[in-house]
UniProtKB/TrEMBL annotation:
<feature type="domain" description="Glycosyltransferase 2-like">
    <location>
        <begin position="6"/>
        <end position="127"/>
    </location>
</feature>
<protein>
    <recommendedName>
        <fullName>Glycosyltransferase 2-like domain-containing protein</fullName>
    </recommendedName>
</protein>
<keyword id="KW-0808">Transferase</keyword>
<comment type="similarity">
    <text>Belongs to the glycosyltransferase 2 family.</text>
</comment>
<dbReference type="InterPro" id="IPR001173">
    <property type="entry name" value="Glyco_trans_2-like"/>
</dbReference>
<keyword id="KW-0328">Glycosyltransferase</keyword>
<dbReference type="GO" id="GO:0016757">
    <property type="term" value="F:glycosyltransferase activity"/>
</dbReference>
<dbReference type="Pfam" id="PF00535">
    <property type="entry name" value="Glycos_transf_2"/>
</dbReference>
<dbReference type="InterPro" id="IPR029044">
    <property type="entry name" value="Nucleotide-diphossugar_trans"/>
</dbReference>
Amino acid sequence: MSPLPTVIVPIHNAFEAVDACLASLDRTLPAGSKVLLADDASTDPRISPMVRGWCYRSALDARYVLREQNLGFPANCNAAFAETGDADLVLLNSDTIATPGWLQQIARCADRDPRIATVTPWSNNAEICSFPRFCEANPVPEHPDSVAEAAAMTLEPDLAELPTAVGFCMYVRRAALRQLGGFDAATFGLGYGEENDFCLRAAAMGWRNVLCETAYVVHQGNASFGPLDIAPNGDNLARLLARWPDYNERVARFIMADPLRPHRQRLQENLEKLARSGPQRDLFG
């Protein structure tokens, strides 16, 4: 198996969420795993000392970069891509909570096909990759590690095709990044739509965007902006559709067909097996 991807956590304020995310990385990643914390000029004065202290204490190979001025999400990510050498990477929102084995499972999925550009895991709040209810912001389960354990019980994941990755947790292959370039910061400015555009460019060049059904990551964020992952009434949606006029139709067809239904059913069955084999509990609170 290839080395584990470098984890990039873009940061802008959100002190409590960042603190919880970093604690989950300490708990779930092997010692020495590479992590880059890319702070896009947070205005909360508590962020920098907290993150620097975590880097000092952590057993992970963690590095903190503080931007001198706010670049916006796409440009901050592009800078982080350049700061992580030749490694494959996972963009992880700072309002996520990682579960055991998440990064190894994503890496295993990516290793199965060199034409995979992006990988997205299951989450409670991940639009088309949401579980248990599709395209909903489900509540955080009471036992997220049990959901992750159930996901990992699927020995031969199908690598189901997605119309786009979901940006809360997005593996990106370095070879695809080299060919496609990074996010289009000039078009998408402060953010929203850049990840969708990247995935569409990848698909147009013969790359794949897939689900890793053996991984699960909690997304604590606010209710998402729906399956487009675009801020409502924002100019970026118009910019995305100007470039990809059929994008709404692609997503709508995916939602109507719901090809992930059997995968969600399999995960639910795995959860029920776990519940029967261990202490009886409500895994979703």
